[in-house]
Automatic annotation (TrEMBL):
<feature type="transmembrane region" description="Helical">
    <location>
        <begin position="59"/>
        <end position="78"/>
    </location>
</feature>
<dbReference type="InterPro" id="IPR007563">
    <property type="entry name" value="DUF554"/>
</dbReference>
<feature type="transmembrane region" description="Helical">
    <location>
        <begin position="145"/>
        <end position="167"/>
    </location>
</feature>
<feature type="transmembrane region" description="Helical">
    <location>
        <begin position="6"/>
        <end position="24"/>
    </location>
</feature>
<dbReference type="Pfam" id="PF04474">
    <property type="entry name" value="DUF554"/>
</dbReference>
<feature type="transmembrane region" description="Helical">
    <location>
        <begin position="36"/>
        <end position="53"/>
    </location>
</feature>
<keyword id="KW-0812">Transmembrane</keyword>
<keyword id="KW-1133">Transmembrane helix</keyword>
<protein>
    <recommendedName>
        <fullName>DUF554 domain-containing protein</fullName>
    </recommendedName>
</protein>
<feature type="transmembrane region" description="Helical">
    <location>
        <begin position="90"/>
        <end position="115"/>
    </location>
</feature>
<feature type="transmembrane region" description="Helical">
    <location>
        <begin position="179"/>
        <end position="197"/>
    </location>
</feature>
<keyword id="KW-0472">Membrane</keyword>
Amino acid sequence: MFPTFGTWVNASLILLGSWIGLHLGKRLPHSVRSGFLTAVATFTLILGVKLIYENTGDTIKVFLSLLVGSVLGHLLGLEERLQRFTESDLYKGFLSASLLFTVGPMTFLGCLLEATKGDSSLLLSKGLMDGLSSVMLASTFGRSVIFSAFFVLVYQGLLTLIFYTFANSIPQENIKASLFIGGGMLLILSLKLFGLLDQIKLLNLLPAMIFSLLV
């Protein structure tokens, strides 16, 4: 199998789940969608805290990565560019789905395993989980969740290719720093899903995760 096979399957399952969710959305009562959103926010909060706790390491590296990545994200205007093309609810759906599907140990470990061992099993398992989640996310947020599949394809594909090319030269501390930052982003995302911290432009922090892997 080629190096990004697992990512292509992952993205395809998100597309399928989103399509199912869009067609089921009108049949699900508001209480069910609201309950699912609360469950997702709570799980995101727990996962964020877990990642932070398990990957505490070089705080200087984390700070510099956040500083440089945040400045780069704001200069590029990632969040502002996205908001120009989406409505508020659609934007929140894309952001929530994209972060939930790409931030976490399964993404990094899955890409690393596929790139170095040719083993796609972890990414395939992740794809099944993402596909099921996208059903409910699409029924709650609408069609914007579909576009998260393309974000997953680009982000995980690039990550796999980076690991494939530079696997032996990426220090473990860099991976821990990236997971630590990802945990912090999930923590912020959970609060945004609960209706808090809406003023933080979370998408502009994404370059920090990539930067922390490379420095």
